[in-house]
Design goal:
The complex is a heterodimer of chains A (857) and B (469). Chain A is mainly beta and 857 residues long. Classes of the chains: A mainly beta (857), B mainly beta (469). The interface between A and B is large, with 78 and 71 residues.
Chain lengths: 857, 469
């Protein structure tokens, strides 16, 4: 018997020793959806307060602990199974905070709270569902929910009977609650954002009663409910300890009392929550997730250096770097109110609450172009967000001369320094890593160097097989300048052709573009509609009849945003082939007509609006139009397609992008080069609202041409000993080109001349090109319809991500911990921990390779 | 030794013959639900002499009629037509016995006093839809008979169950409508009711789970409107039409935009279609929305359209997309979520498809219903069959407001195991009731919410039907 037990134990020990891959086995999470790090006592380390990760399992109705030092799950009293702290059903939120009465060497147990999503049937009857915050015992090894400390919100404040829990945060009360009187240590707060624009605040303090368990907590004062006037859907405690930031979909008032949308800053330094000042920070859109960090940003002119350039008094005329760290708030914009049709793109806005010049709102655009810093775009929907600071004391800088506490990061482009990393758990199952100090999601490729840089990746021309017909070519204005005024369209020389289409890092998009003569306008191809005759004017509209003069509409074809212009060509396909015989080569009957005007909505004939059309000279078309739209049968069903007059530029993803000129004059580069770039949206919007159709057409284009990211590449430098030589690894740009500002600094001039090369999505000059020898002898213009030039662009960007090594379905929680605080792991820095729905947690460092990812499951 | 296999074979054959005969011959029970699936409601004025008799729920004299499809999932009854469509009158809020304590569940095991009738339908019935004056104004007042539609996956048929003046269901002549034999497992049967130049047009669009090469198909059954050339009478079963890769799952009709939306089944983690057909614009095939670029590893199930038509609420079953991509197989569910998708139309009239929220739910989200609320975004109810929960998501707050999960006293799901079928009733007095069918336990729970602005106050008002032993 005894020998058997020994053998079994030995086998168990052997099995444990031989396990690999996952650092711990049998954590048995069950849909982990919330994480929090805390200091406390457990059976795993009963002798001292230690750091753990609390993991709430939504399906398991429990919280489990993971030892942050070795990633082993804390086992329960039964030894074989992990410790389980049963909670109310479906725990979805965790929050932890120090009480501020410990030290680095001798931490004290933290406040650890857990709450469910939605009220649950745990009350006395189904009429009395619970909405409560449970406190987990961290001050003795019998970890459990302490019922005496549970905050039952409706029980403590009946006005909360209808409240939903939206958010939860915990914070140390570190600031003096009374001016001039230091706050005694040993206090912490729980803040619960509730529906109805309320914030519930519960305070806890260390229980000094000698009869109490050492280190235990007790409530301090009653629950306080503050009517904020907005729903705090997510809360983040500022690292400075005296502010809490709340993401909200609701309107706010900024410091000047002006209405704004964005993040609420709640000054929690006072003792009375009812008196806490609240200030709205303008993010130009509602927000739904928020995180805060104190960090330095890169210098404007050098992506590798952090800090602000200041005169160095120790060196005559010298320049040094001031650390200049500041509080920054990252806020995920609510996708219902951002995007290419809204005032700001979707993504993560960077707010600077202490920057008076920005009114505490979005930081300035480092390129000086947009009126605000472009949001950090994440390729998928963010589900959780945290700002990860450097380890205590910082990592050893990769680039010397740093003056700031930095952390090492290792994106695929190479090791580098950063001052903070944003970890974003997203719906694509990945953790996206943001290089906050460089204003962008980390880039896994170089936007200026290598095969995946921002550039034109392919180019082709399509036209008639008859080489006498001209095709769409591109002017090589360098040749024009050098006295060789011809278009260059040598397909065998793709690299040089790529330079004929300009695209800028930060604006370039992954897309397939086409420039087509009389091309179809995107969104207006084979659309079901109606052709008719109303008030003597033939019209086409996106609508179908419900009754004689009742219509269901499919959009306003006359909306300037669609890009239709006077003179464009409407192809009206009529299913009745007896009425309109199909043109030769077509299966569908119909006719073409010229767009002659834009018709405002008419409730009888075209409730959404219509295009006035006129007959083309083709007699067949004329007959057909006359027959289908006459007084006897004023409207007929049709399929509508609109072709532009001249060249039409469109992107497969971008959509309609405008009308380049077919430039025939060699000297017209200044006026006929076509540029797709951002412009002042405010002015365009105002002009569009005033009825300016060209502004209305341009506005959606410039919005889609906004900056998509800030390049994290360094300036293309010349070799040190040859200042005029091109950096060959940076082939598309001249020496001294700054990818953020688009400015090249010419080093030879004194003072150095700065030349702005533009910040554009696309730039090219199209022209007719004759493929015959010598480039002459072709048939005269116009081009044949559908003669086209197509090219592909690549963005120069790939997200820097981490994911589970196996599986990894839907990360709903992310947090971090500085593992250098443990003597045994002092070489490690801050680690990021993310929980996935498929019952695993990954633990990784932004400074290590993806293979060095620990898994706890 | 040599006799044993023979004896075993004989015994097995006897058992097999016995059980199959029993199953084939048994008339489905009409005193209880049996693996209920589709659930729907009608409202009829009690004293109405002749149709149409629509009324508003909660008004005095307005009967709430509950329609429940029993699927005969275990084939305990007749294999072919062992399913039923039951119609019951649900006691009104005002009829609640005074003897019951507040919050106490009124258990009504005997359905006899409530029944309006039972009709026999094919086994493995799916979603249920109703065509009457309430769902299609002008239908009954135009002299047409109200009907319920349910497809049988076992029979590959659409059942058009006539609903008599008092709501009694009958499956008589014209009840059994054959569908395309190449397509299998018909499931969703939304009614598209719309005005056309030819008058009131009504159709049922049927989705199919089992399709060649997993292409999506819809089949339209025309019930009224313009009679197609060559047809002599309604219903006219149109040939199915393809809607792109991935079989369709659940479908809903947006009567304002005359747009039929439908989710898809699993076709790989790189595909999560949410497509639509513009019914008014026949012959065109819009591209639809693919959510896979925003969500990796989700499979659509039921959904609801918001009351303002600007959002769709999709029940998603989440799985490990990476492993699925690696092995080309659908891996087990890891969780469930509600995707809130913006479908507001752009300048060109096409819906957007922006993912606005991804809300974690329980396992096995199935059916979804949305309730409009004055001045607030909708309240959304989702049944999660695999973990026995009903979630109430408050789209105004952007959070789950209430979860009906396990009974703390018994440890059993409050609404029965595998809650699946779902119907919602918005009453004249502002109250809301959700009807939730427990597939596994075979009863229907009524969840009541007196103030839709306070969804956490929802409570289980009654339980209809006898729990399956």
């Amino acid at each position: 018997m005894r020998a058997g037990r020994t053998a079994a134990l030995a086998a168990l020990a052997l099995a444990a020793a031989c396990s690999s891959g996952a650092r711990t086995l049998g954590a048995k999470f069950s849909q982990p959806t919330a994480l929090a790090t805390f200091q406390g006592l457990t059976r795993a380390r009963p002798e001292a307060v230690h750091a753990y990760l609390a993991v709430a399992s939504a399906r398991g109705d429990e919280v489990r602990f993971v030892d942050l030092q070795d990633d082993r799950v804390v086992v329960g009293p039964g030894v074989i199974f992990p410790l389980s702290v049963p909670t109310d059903p479906r725990p979805m939120r965790l929050a932890a905070a120090s009480l501020g009465d410990g030290s680095a060497g001798a931490p004290s147990p933290d406040l650890l709270a857990v709450a469910g999503a939605g009220s649950l049937d745990v009350g006395a009857s189904s009429l009395r569902p619970a909405l409560r915050l449970q406190i987990v015992v961290t001050w003795d090894v019998h970890n459990r929910v302490d019922p005496a400390l549970t905050v039952d919100l409706p029980a403590e404040d009946p006005s909360l009977a209808d409240a939903d829990l939206l958010s939860l945060a915990a914070m140390t009360i570190a600031r003096p609650v009374t001016p001039g009187v230091p706050s005694p240590p040993g206090r912490a707060r729980l803040l619960a954002g509730l529906s109805g624009g309320r914030l519930a605040v519960a305070e806890f303090e260390r229980d000094s009663d000698p009869a109490a368990t050492p280190g235990s907590l007790k409530r301090r004062g009653p629950l306080v409910v503050r009517d904020l006037g907005f729903d705090a859907v997510h809360l983040a405690v500022s690292p400075d300890g005296w502010r809490v930031f709340a993401a909200t979909p609701d309107p706010l008032l900024d410091a000047a009392g002006q209405p704004v949308r964005g993040v609420a800053q709640i000054d929690v330094s006072g003792a009375d929550p009812l008196a806490w000042p609240v200030t709205g920070l303008d993010a130009r859109a509602p927000t739904r997730l928020v995180a805060a960090g104190i960090l330095s940003e890169r210098t404007p002119d050098d992506a590798d250096l952090f800090g602000r350039r200041v005169p160095d008094p120790s060196v005559p005329g010298g320049i040094g770097l001031a650390p200049d760290p500041r509080l920054e708030v990252l806020a995920v914009l609510d996708e219902s109110s951002c995007g290419s049709q809204a005032a700001i793109d979707c993504g993560i806005a960077t707010l600077v609450p202490d920057d008076a010049s920005r009114g505490g709102g979005i930081a300035a655009d480092p390129a000086g172009q947009l009126p605000y810093r472009a949001p950090i775009r994440i390729g998928a929907m963010p589900l959780a967000l945290v700002v990860v600071p450097p380890r205590a004391g910082g990592d050893v800088p990769v680039v010397s001369g740093q003056v700031e506490t930095v952390m090492t990061i290792a994106p695929p482009t190479g090791r580098n320094d950063a001052t903070a990393v944003g970890a974003v758990a997203a719906a694509d199952g990945r953790i996206h890593l943001v290089d906050v100090g460089r204003w962008a999601e980390g880039n896994a490729v170089s936007s200026m160097r290598g095969a995946q840089r921002a550039a034109v990746a392919s180019l082709d021309a399509l036209g008639s097989s008859d080489t006498n017909k001209q095709v769409v070519g591109l002017w090589n204005d360098r040749l024009v300048e050098s006295g060789q005024p011809e278009t260059a369209i040598a397909f065998e020389d793709l690299p040089s052709l790529q330079k004929l289409v300009g695209t800028t890092p930060g604006f370039a998009q992954d897309d397939a573009w086409s420039v087509v003569w009389e091309g179809l306008i995107p969104g207006l191809v084979l659309r079901p509609g109606t052709v008719g005759l109303a008030n003597g004017t033939p019209f086409v509209a996106l609508q179908r009849p419900l009754a004689a003069t009742t219509w269901i509409t499919g959009g306003n074809i006359a909306d300037p945003a669609l890009g239709v212009r006077i003179g464009d060509i409407a192809f009206v396909a009529i299913p009745d082939t007896a009425l309109c015989p199909p043109p030769e080569g077509f299966a569908v009957g119909g006719f073409e007509a010229r767009v002659t005007g834009f018709l405002a909505p008419d409730p009888t004939w075209y409730p959404a609006g219509a295009l006035a059309v006129d007959r083309l000279s083709d007699p067949d078309h004329t007959a057909c139009l006359r027959d289908v739209a006459d007084a006897a049968a004023p409207t007929r069903d049709a399929e509508l397609s609109i072709r532009g007059q001249g060249l039409v530029l469109s992107g497969q993803s971008f959509g309609y992008a405008g009308r380049p000129t077919l430039s025939v004059d060699p000297g017209a580069a200044a006026t006929e080069t076509f540029v797709v770039e951002w412009q002042d949206e405010g002015a365009l919007a105002a002009a569009a609202a005033a009825g300016d159709r060209s502004a209305g057409e341009l506005l959606p284009i410039v919005r889609k041409a906004r900056r998509r990211y800030y390049p994290t590449d360094r300036v293309c430098p010349p070799p040190p000993d040859k200042p005029d030589l091109q950096d060959l690894s940076c082939p598309d740009y001249p020496v001294g080109y700054d990818p953020v500002t688009g400015v090249v600094t010419v080093p030879r001039t004194t003072p150095p001349e700065k030349v702005f090369l533009g910040l554009h999505l696309l730039k090219f000059r199209a022209g007719p090109h004759c493929r015959l020898s010598g480039g002459t002898g072709c048939d005269p213009l116009p081009l044949l319809r559908d003669t086209s030039l197509s090219f592909g662009t690549q963005s120069g960007r790939a997200p820097w991500i981490r994911q589970a090594l196996g599986g990894g379905s839907f990360p709903f929680a992310v947090t971090w911990y500085d593992k250098s605080l443990f003597p045994s792991t002092s070489s490690r820095g801050t680690q990021i921990l993310a929980a996935f729905f498929d019952d695993q947690i990954i633990d990784f460092s932004p400074a290590s390779s993806p293979a060095d990812t620990a898994v706890v499951r | 030794m040599t006799r044993l296999p023979t004896l075993l074979a004989v015994a097995l054959a006897a058992v097999s013959a016995c059980t199959s005969d029993q199953a084939r011959n048994l008339v489905p029970a009409t005193d209880r639900f049996h693996y209920p699936t589709g659930v729907a409601l009608r409202h009829l004025a009690a004293a109405c002499p002749a149709p149409p008799c629509p009324c508003t729920a909660g008004e005095v004299g307005c009967d709430t009629l509950l329609h429940v499809v029993s699927s005969n999932m275990d084939l305990a009854f007749d294999v072919a037509e062992g399913g039923t469509l039951a119609v019951l009158r649900v006691p009104d809020v005002a009829e609640r016995p005074a003897s019951l304590a507040p919050g106490e569940v009124q258990a009504i095991a005997d359905l006899g006093p409530l029944e309006r009738g039972w009709a026999r339908v094919g086994s493995f019935g799916g979603e249920l839809s109703i065509l009457d004056e309430e769902t299609c104004p002008g239908w009954e007042s135009g002299g047409r008979e109200a009907a319920a539609f349910v497809a049988s996956r076992n029979q590959g048929r659409l059942y058009r169950v006539a609903l008599g003046a008092a709501g009694a269901p009958t499956c008589g002549d014209g009840c059994r409508i054959s569908l395309d034999p190449v397509l299998g497992d018909p499931y969703s049967t939304p009614v598209a009711c719309r005005l056309t130049p030819a008058g009131l047009s009504a159709s049922v669009f049927v989705t199919f789970f089992l399709t060649p090469q997993n292409l999506g198909y819809l089949q339209e059954v025309l019930l009224s409107g313009e009679l197609p050339a060559g047809a002599t009478a309604f219903p006219v079963v149109n040939p199915p039409f393809a809607v792109g890769i991935d079989a369709a799952h659940s479908a809903r009709f947006d009567p304002v935009r005359q747009r039929l939306w439908f989710t898809g089944r699993f076709a790989g983690p790189g595909t999560l279609p949410f497509r639509f057909v513009d019914v008014a614009f026949t012959g065109t095939q819009p591209p639809g929305i693919d959510l896979a670029s925003q969500i990796y590893g989700g499979e659509g199930r039921g959904f609801a359209l918001s009351s303002d038509g600007r959002r769709a609420y999709l029940a998603l079953r989440l799985y490990d997309g990476f492993t699925s991509a690696l092995y080309g197989l659908r891996t087990p569910d890891t969780g469930g979520a509600l995707a809130v998708v913006g479908i507001e139309e752009g300048a060109d009239g096409r819906p957007g498809g922006q993912l606005l929220r991804l809300v974690p739910l329980g396992l096995g989200p199935s059916e979804v219903r949305a309730i409009p609320r004055a001045g607030r975004r909708d309240l959304v109810a989702v049944t999660c069959a695999d973990d026995g929960t009903l979630h109430l998501y408050d789209d105004e707050a952007g959070a789950v407001a209430r979860v009906f999960a396990l009974d703390p006293a018994t440890g059993k799901p409050v609404l029965g195991r595998q809650p699946f079928g779902l119907a919602a009733e918005q009453r004249f007095d502002g109250k809301v009731r959700f009807f939730v069918g427990s597939f596994e336990r075979s009863f229907v729970s009524v969840v009541r919410l007196d103030d839709p602005a306070a969804p956490r106050d929802a409570w289980v008002e009654m339980r209809l039907g006898r729990e399956r032993p």
